[in-house]
Amino acid sequence: MLIVRITGGIGNQLFQYAFARSLSIELNRNFKLDLSWYRNYHKFEEESNPDAATKRTYLLDKFNVKKNLLNPLYLSISYRLNNYSILNKVKKYPVLNYFSYSTITESEFDIYKIQYLKNVYISGFWQKNDLFEKYSDLLKEEFTLKNNLSVENEFFFNKIEQSTSIAIHIRRGDLLSRPAAVAEQPYSTYKYYTKSINIMKEKLEKPELFVFSDDIDWVKNNYNFDLPTTFIDNDGPDYEHFNLMCNCKHQIIANSTFSWWAAWLNNYQDKIIIAPKWWYRDTKKNESIIRIPEDWRILENIEE
Hints:
With 304 residues, the chain is α/β, with parallel strands linked by helices. The chain is built from 15 helices and 10 strands. It has helices at residues 10-27, 36-39, 41-44, 73-83, 85-88, 111-114, 136-142, 151-161, 173-177, 179-184, 190-203, 216-222, 238-247, 257-264, 283-289, and strands at 2-5, 31-34, 102-105, 120-123, 164-170, 207-213, 229-231, 250-252, 273-276, 297-299. Strands 7-6-5-8-9-10 form a 6-stranded parallel beta sheet, with helices on both faces. Strands 2-1-4-3 form a 4-stranded parallel beta sheet, covered by helices on one side. Strand 6, helix 12 (216-222) and strand 7 (229-231) form a beta-alpha-beta unit. Helix 1 crosses helix 14 and helix 13 crosses helix 14 (257-264).
């Protein structure tokens, strides 16, 4: 059995699921999703700590993914069997081997070693792994919404479908509110977005912008787009906004897994995707963490 730890927002959840789903097919193994991070966030992160990860909601259940959830008791039983000496003695019974597993992180991952392990707990973000590209058709099918859009978002959807639509994602939120994020992850600048829009204007006829942001009022007050513009400014929900972004014909993404996945799931044949060069300020980390497809255009997003 493969167990994958699911954490973070939609983008991280999709990366973690895509990796686990692909690995399970590759190894012909069952997989389970561990959602304990969402139930026990206070144990993993100090909510009063400004450097803690932003608290998120589990949203994979809004998509047509496999509902392979790990029983919450599994990890508790496993912990007790492995840490209490009196219970350690009963581990000799084969049926209890089900509660023993090996933990594998991204730096330790080796698919050839994993295939010889009975139960594996997979922990990481898996944003650089290429395995899921092999199963892109399956994942694109599973990463569709279960339910119809709300009436208001259906209006936006139709507008997107009927135009030369460009999704532009401007991420602020935790990039500015958490000191660790501010120091580590650059905020894509006005110059990056302006240059990206100019490229789109050169290549497309009658383009229209659809703006997505976690601080939409700030964007309205600080950006002046020289194109017909629609602000996706209702209350969401996030997964419906994500679906709208996926269905835009072109994308200008932020250094965000949310818009990365929206661009990757874009099925428009002649799509143009523009992505920021810097997702992290550290060169080595920037090159090793995130994967940018070859057909996406990369632009500078830091102003010195």
